[in-house]
């Protein structure tokens, strides 16, 4: 798992409690260790987590180690970013992106 400051980790077992029951919007990043685009996205996620503080939680889930959740949300490519609000997915983004672009895409959620 790619570790990034400010970005939490969830599993199939903790997904409901940490994402669906969260009081703030949660950006879930579906990733894998072998994914080069996921590694490029990691520092962007850290910067966004720092910038948005308590207004948005960012967590990642290893799609290889936790296959149930990616299947439940139709994840077909990595990295896939799914924004959850009030326990429901409200936006889905596929692929690495810049900090500026990600902040623009998240602007309505936070």
Automatic annotation (TrEMBL):
Q: Which InterPro entries match?
A: Thioredoxin, Thioredoxin-like_sf, Thioredoxin_CS, Thioredoxin_domain
Q: What is this protein called?
A: Thioredoxin
Q: Which residues form the Thioredoxin domain?
A: 1-110
Asked if the record carries the keyword Transcription regulation, the reply is: no
Superkingdom assignment: Bacteria
Keyword GTP-binding, does the record have it? no
Key words, A-Z: Disulfide bond, Electron transport, Redox-active center, Transport
**The organism's taxonomic lineage, starting at the top:** Bacteria, Bacillati, Actinomycetota, Actinomycetes, Streptosporangiales
The family assignment reads: Belongs to the thioredoxin family.
């Amino acid at each position: 798992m790619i570790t990034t400051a400010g970005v939490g980790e969830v599993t199939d077992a903790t997904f409901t409690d940490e994402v669906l029951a969260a009081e703030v919007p949660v950006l879930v990043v579906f990733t894998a260790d072998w994914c080069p685009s996921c590694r490029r996205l990691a520092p962007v996620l850290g910067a966004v987590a720092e910038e948005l503080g308590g207004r948005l939680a960012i967590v990642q889930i290893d799609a290889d180690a936790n296959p149930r959740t990616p299947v439940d949300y139709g994840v077909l490519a990595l990295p896939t970013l799914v924004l959850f609000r009030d326990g429901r997915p409200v936006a889905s983004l596929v692929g690495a992106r810049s900090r500026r672009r990600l902040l623009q895409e998240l602007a309505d959620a936070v």
